[in-house]
Specification:
By secondary structure, this protein is mainly alpha-helical. It is built from 19 helices and four strands. 68% of the residues lie in helices and 3% in strands. Belongs to the RBT5 family. Belongs to the SAT4 family.
C-alpha cells in the first residue's frame, strides 16, 4: 500500500512553480502519461488537490496498474521515490533489526562455541560433533556479517529509497545467504545428532540417529543444490531488473518447503532423546535437569515457526527490502540459537565449577560431596580424570529400567566414561566401577 500511495504524488508536480517543473523533468515519461491518463478519467480530485490525490485509493490502484504495466522496474522505482517525496511520505527505516540484534547474537554464539571447544580440549577431547559444530560456526560468522552489511546498505528500507547499485548488491548477498543458511541448518542438526550418538549406547536408538544423520545430510545437499540452481542461468537469481533471459523455479514455494522440513526435523531431534532420558535410573532432580537441558531445543523450533510465518508475508511482497526484515532477523535467531543450544551440554562442567550449587542439584548419590569447588577445581579434575580414563576399554554394562544390556565395547559408552569430570569421594571409594550401571548413570550426569 505504501508503494501504491507513493505513486499518487506525481499529480502535484503539474503546478506552475519552477521547482515542480524541474521535478517533472525527472519523472519517467511512461509514468507521466499514466498519471495524466488516470487524472483525466476521474472526477474525484482536482489536479492540484494534494490531500485528495495522495489519499485516494481508486486513483492509486489505477496509476499503479498503469505504471507497473508500462514502465521498467527502474522507471517504476524512480517514479515512486519522487512521488513519495511529493506526497510527504516519511522515509521508513527498520534496518536496526538486521544489524544490532544479529551483532549481539553472533557475539554470544561465538563465545559459547569457544567455551565449548575449550571445555572439550581440557576434558575428554574432541569428537565428530565438536568439529561439525565448529565448522558450522565458521560458516555462521560470515553469514551473519553478510546480513549486517545488507542492513547497512539498504535492507530494512523501502525498495524505492535504495540506490540501484545497492539494490543489486543486496540481491546478490541475499542469494548467497539463501543457500548458506541451508548449510548452517543442516550443520547444527547433524552436530546435535552426533552428540546424541556419542552419549546413548542403545542399539536401536543409534540406528535411528544414524538414519536421521543420513537424511539430514541428503536433504541438506539436495536443498543447497536446488537453491544454487533455482534459476538458469544462475545470475538470473539476483536479476532484480529482469533483464536476464532464462527461467526460475518457484522460489517462495521452495523456501517454504525447506522451512517446513526444518521445523519437522527440529521437532524429531527434540523429542528423540526424551524416552531414553526418562528410562534412566536417575533422581528426580537430575532427570529434570537433563530433560530441561535437552528441551532447550524448543527455542529453535519456536524461532523456525515464526520465521516461516514471516516468509509467507515476504513472499507476497512488492517491497521486499522492507518486508524481508523480520524474516532476516528471525532467520539469524534460528541459526544462532541452533548452534548455541548444541553447545550447552559441553558447558555443564564449567557451569558447575562456577556455580557449585549445581552439583547438589544434579547429584544422585546421597552423601556425595565435591571437596574442590570453582572453575579451577573443575578444570583440575578434568585433567586428572582424563589420564585415568584412557585405560578404560572393553565391555561396559548399561542398565535401563528393563534390565542390563551388554554393549560389548561400545565406543560411545567408553567415550561417555571418558567425559567424567567429578570423582566420588564417599566411603573411601573413588566411585569408579566399569561394570556398575549406577556409576555409569552417575557419569552420564557429568558428560559434555
Amino acid at each position: 500500500m505504501r508503494l501504491l500511495r507513493a505513486f499518487l504524488g506525481l499529480a502535484l508536480l503539474f503546478s506552475l512553480s519552477a521547482t515542480v517543473l524541474a521535478q517533472v523533468s525527472a519523472i519517467p515519461a511512461c509514468a507521466q502519461l499514466c498519471l495524466l491518463k488516470t487524472l483525466k478519467a476521474q472526477d474525484e480530485c482536482g489536479i492540484t488537490d494534494q490531500a485528495c490525490i495522495c489519499q485516494n485509493k481508486h486513483i492509486a490502484a489505477n496509476v499503479t496498474a498503469c505504471v507497473t504495466g508500462s514502465c521498467t522496474i527502474r522507471e517504476t522505482l524512480t517514479y515512486a521515490n519522487i512521488s513519495k517525496a511529493t506526497c510527504g511520505v516519511p522515509d521508513g527505516d527498520r534496518s536496526f533489526g538486521p544489524i544490532y540484534p544479529v551483532m549481539v547474537l553472533i557475539i554470544c554464539t561465538s563465545i559459547l562455541v569457544c567455551l565449548r571447544m575449550w571445555a572439550r580440549s581440557i576434558s575428554a577431547g574432541f569428537w565428530w560433533d565438536d568439529w561439525v559444530i565448529f565448522v558450522t560456526w565458521i560458516i555462521l560468522v560470515p553469514w551473519c556479517i553478510n546480513g549486517i552489511i545488507m542492513g547497512y546498505i539498504g535492507l530494512g528500507k523501502h525498495v524505492w529509497d535504495i540506490s540501484f547499485t545497492n539494490l543489486s548488491r543486496i540481491n546478490k548477498m541475499y542469494y548467497w545467504g539463501e543457500w548458506t543458511y541451508l548449510v548452517i541448518a543442516a550443520g547444527y542438526k547433524i552436530g546435535i545428532l552426533l552428540f546424541l550418538l556419542r552419549i546413548f549406547p542403545e542399539k536401536r536408538f543409534r540406528v535411528v540417529v544414524w538414519c536421521l544423520i543420513v537424511f539430514n545430510a541428503a536433504w541438506g545437499v539436495s536443498s543447497v543444490a536446488m537453491t544454487i540452481f533455482q534459476c538458469w542461468p544462475i545470475r538470473k537469481a539476483w536479476d532484480w531488473e529482469q533483464k536476464v533471459e532464462g527461467r526460475c523455479n518457484d522460489k517462495h514455494a521452495q523456501a517454504w518447503t525447506a522451512a517446513a522440513m526444518g521445523i519437522v526435523l527440529d521437532l524429531v531431534i527434540l523429542l528423540l532423546p526424551i524416552p531414553s532420558l526418562i528410562k534412566l535410573q536417575l533422581s528426580g532432580k537430575k532427570k529434570l535437569g537433563l530433560l530441561g537441558m535437552f528441551s532447550c531445543g524448543i527455542l529453535i523450533t519456536i524461532a523456525s515457526v515464526i520465521r516461516l510465518q514471516t516468509l509467507v508475508t515476504f513472499g507476497n511482497s512488492q517491497d521486499k527490502t522492507w518486508d524481508q526484515t523480520p524474516a532476516s532477523y528471525w532467520t539469524a535467531i534460528e541459526m544462532n540459537v541452533g548452534v548455541s543450544v548444541s553447545c550447552m551440554p559441553a558447558l555443564r562442567p564449567l557451569l558447575q565449577g562456577a556455580f557449585p550449587k549445581l552439583n547438589t542439584f544434579f547429584s544422585t548419590t546421597k552423601g556425595s560431596t565435591n571437596n574442590t569447588s570453582g572453575t579451577a577445581g573443575t578444570i583440575d579434575r578434568m585433567k586428572q580424570r582424563q589420564g585415568a580414563l584412557k585405560m578404560e576399554e572393553g565391555s561396559v554394562k548399561h542398565t535401563s529400567h528393563n534390565g542390563t544390556i551388554d554393549t560389548k565395547s561400545e565406543s560411545t559408552v567408553v567415550e561417555l566414561s571418558r567425559m567424567e569430570t567429578r570423582p566420588n569421594t564417599s566411603a573411601g571409594n573413588d566411585g569408579w566401577d566399569a561394570h556398575s550401571s549406577q556409576v555409569m548413570l552417575d557419569r552420564k550426569d557429568n558428560m559434555v
